[in-house]
Amino acid sequence: MVLVILRRIGIFATTGIVASIVTFLLLAILPGNAARIALGVQATEADVAAQATAIGLDRPAVVRYLDWIGHVLVGDFGTSAVSRQPIGPDIADALGITVILVLASVVLALLFAIPFGILTAIRQRGPDGAIFSSISQIGVAVPGFLAGLLLVTVFAVTLRWLPAGGWVDPADDFSGFIEHLILPAIALGSVQGAVLSRYVRSAVLDVMRDDFMRTARAKGLGTARALFRHGLRNAAVPVMTVLGLQIATLLIGAVVIERVFSIPGLGSLLLDKVALRDLPAVQGIVLVLVVFVLVLNFLVDLAFTVIDPRLRSES
Questions:
Q1: From which residue to which does the signal peptide run (predicted)?
Q2: Which domains does the chain have, with CATH numbers?
């Protein structure tokens, strides 16, 4: 068990290092001069050259990468090329909002996908199973931004039950925070819940065909009881694999949803910085997004060792 965890940590660390190198190189080769962006289009070539020297753009790429990643590891993401303010505090504030939105969406997606997928699998041969399957197919086909717009139109504009957008800090007003979180979390989580329910259905159907499930039913257990007592743990392994991939999709979808609902999360911050061509800020935000996905997938890998005892004995 300990060796498995250490191996997962080693893979996570290696992947994180590679991701930081790729992020640095991709943004380093983009067209545009960070020194000119900082000084403005009216700056002379001499001023741009002096600014480039001041921020270290004349140094070799390897030296710049090591300096950048060294500061990032201690929480220093540098200074914005546009506002000349530290990048770290803005990223930290936006990341907290995005984490809340994504985690709330994951919870909603699971609350929908697990019972819905199981019910669809158990009732696959009945007319209600066909209806449930059709509902999930429709959910898969609806884009997240369209779901958000529909929710705003119905619940914010027409019924006036919930706010159409914005964000409230939970420390300031918890009830207001919940009201502003409901619609974007549903918009982001419902589509992924529909996708995940298809995988839950497929995993449950595969388990129901296994020999041990037939043995359990032969001993007198009903289909549902045999599934809940013996089958769900086996069905959870492929579902967890898909969930790890969907978390990355949720994070990408959050960029759009944050714009639809005017939420000041990491996605909105990234789009703002891209529009301003603030390359140091974009570099830091992209790295944080990548590491966030890696951390969540690392946690999913650890969950495998809890769900599947066979993985605990890996050497």
A1: none
A2: 2-73 (no CATH), 88-308 (1.10.3720.10)
The per-residue pLDDT for range 82-118, each reduced to its tens digit, is 777 888 899 999 999 998 998 899 888 888 888 888 8
Q: For residue 257, give the nearest of 170, 177, 151 by alpha carbon.
A: 151
CA distance 152 to 145: 11
User: How many other C-beta atoms are found inside a 10 Å radius of the C-beta of residue 21?
Assistant: 12
183 and 261 in contact (C-beta within 8 Å)? Answer: yes
Note the pLDDT of residue 1.
63
CA dihedral sign of residues 156, 159, 162, 163: positive
CA dihedral of 170, 285, 39, 64, whole degrees rounded to 10: 140
Using pLDDT thresholds of 50, 70 and 90, give the confidence band for residue 315. very low
| Distance separating alpha carbons of residues 74 and 77, to the nearest angstrom | 9
φ/ψ of residue 104, rounded to 5 = -65, -40
Picking from 198, 238, 191, the residue whose alpha carbon sits closest to that of residue 116 is 198
Q: Return the residue matching tokens 């005017």.
A: 262
Tell me the pLDDT tens digit for each residue of 166-194: 898 888 889 999 999 999 999 888 888 88
Instruction: State both tokens at 6.
Output: 């250490």
DSSP code, position 157: I
Strands (E), 210-278: none
Written as six digits, the tokens of 223 are 């289909």
Please write down the long-range contacts of 130-135, taking CB distance under 8 Å and 24 or more positions apart: 133/201, 135/194
**64 in Cβ contact with 72 (< 8 Å):** no
